Amino acid sequence: MEEVAKANKEFDMDHWFSSDVQLHQLYPREMQILAARHWTPLRVAHQATQFLVPHEGENVKILDIGSGVGKFCLVGAYYRPQASFFGVEQRKHLVGHAKDARAMLCLKNVHFFAMNVTELDFRQFDHFYFYNSFYENLLDTCKIDDTIICSPHLYNYYNRVLYKKLEAMPAGTRVVTFHCVGVKIPPGYLLMEEHEGTLLQCWLKI
């Protein structure tokens, strides 16, 4: 009976999403250490999801730009099971951890792929989440690891590409940014909500 109870707890979705501590248990220890600085807090992911998919049952596609180990996408998929969440991340080993966590949760509405965001056609998606994944390209910042090239030039380049891709999206596009001070959002996007002080900003293209 104890083994059955333990198995049920392991596959109890509410158990995993009850706190950041519980959710981080899906990942190896070396990934958990990075969580405080690099992964979206559970409460923030929930708030962002409510703006990106305001109505339960909406069948929309959400892209997390620089998804890391996939935490935001997993949270979004849990709270909005009818929507589809996609994570793009250039570090292949992080995508591997994201896919492992997805498999443990048996979530079907989450997808991860390893590629550079500049190669991605944003028109495949409806709305976007961005936790300033370009920031580590700046000097004297805390980087996830040294497996990719980082430079201030790339920071400026990636932000220009993101600006142009968002600029080309149609009216009705929703964007949520977190810790994105200094990142420019194209004209036409109206700031609708702010949370976590002003760190979490919710935009709608009109």
Compute the gyration radius: what is it? Answer: 17 Å
The overall pLDDT, averaged over residues, is 90
Strand order of the largest sheet: 3-2-1-4-5-7-6
From N to C, what is the helix and strand string? HHHHHHEHEHEEHEEE
So what's the overall shape? Answer: globular
Content-based structural category: alpha/beta
Question: CATH topology, which one?
Answer: Rossmann fold
Instruction: Write down the CATH class.
Output: Alpha Beta
Tell me what the CATH architecture is. 3-Layer(aba) Sandwich
Biggest sheet layout: 7 strands, mixed
Head-to-tail CA distance between termini: 56 Å
- Helical content (DSSP H or I, runs of 4+): 25-40%
Corresponding CATH superfamily: Vaccinia Virus protein VP39
Proportion in β-strands: 15-25%
Q: Using DSSP, what is the number of strands? A: 7
The number of helical segments is: 9
Q: How many domains, in number, for the residues? A: 1
